[in-house]
Design the sequence.
């Protein structure tokens, strides 16, 4: 039940976009088309699901105090190690998408390599580290669940936003709000709507 609670919480309550506003650069830029948003959302979910447990293992068995050598604390290297793991996986995703879906690769353009610097991906690993310290994540299985949930949460947010923006193309929007302006207003409103999930406890 605790694992299910962690999964639901990472999607709806601690949503990377609506609770923390992480990954906003690619969220705003790529959410103009549902097809593109689906592709990027799946890529982010894959990277998040793979890198969070890998970074958990590195955090627990390499970086933690006394993990490698008694009296040695390598936790100050967390940022560098996490970024290296994320960058390696993003490169892998980029090569896979280019090989199997060139049209999606061309649509995503510069935003695919930008997953490497997407703060939602880095945020997932840093929140995982924080949750390990608080005792909320106790093993690699729970880190997989958290990585998958936080990735699905980001994917859900960008797909919802893309669906709304496609409909907005046929709406009358004041000139001053066209583009990013209305996108930020909608994101804020969706963030308020997602606050309804904050009381859920399974």
Sequence:
């Amino acid at each position: 039940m605790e694992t299910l609670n962690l999964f639901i919480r990472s999607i709806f309550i601690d949503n990377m976009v609506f609770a923390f506003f992480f990954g906003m650069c690619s969220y705003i830029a790529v959410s103009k088309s549902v097809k593109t948003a689906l592709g990027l959302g799946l890529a982010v979910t894959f990277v998040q699901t793979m890198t969070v447990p890998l970074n958990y293992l590195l955090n627990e068995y390499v970086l933690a105090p006394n993990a490698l050598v008694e009296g040695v604390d390598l936790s100050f290297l967390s940022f560098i190690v996490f970024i290296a793991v994320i960058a390696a996986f993003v490169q892998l995703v980029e090569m896979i998408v280019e090989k199997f879906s060139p049209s999606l690769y061309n649509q995503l353009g510069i935003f695919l390599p930008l997953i490497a610097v997407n703060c939602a991906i880095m945020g997932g690993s840093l929140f995982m580290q924080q949750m390990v310290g608080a005792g909320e994540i106790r093993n690699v299985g729970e880190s997989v669940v958290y990585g998958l949930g936080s990735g699905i949460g980001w994917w859900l947010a960008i797909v919802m936003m893309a669906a709304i923006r496609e409909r907005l193309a046929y709406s009358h929007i004041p000139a001053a709000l066209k583009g990013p302006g209305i996108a930020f207003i909608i994101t804020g409103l969706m963030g308020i709507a997602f606050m309804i999930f904050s009381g859920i406890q399974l």
In short: Residues 2-199 form one domain. The CA atoms of residues 8 and 149 lie 7 Å apart.
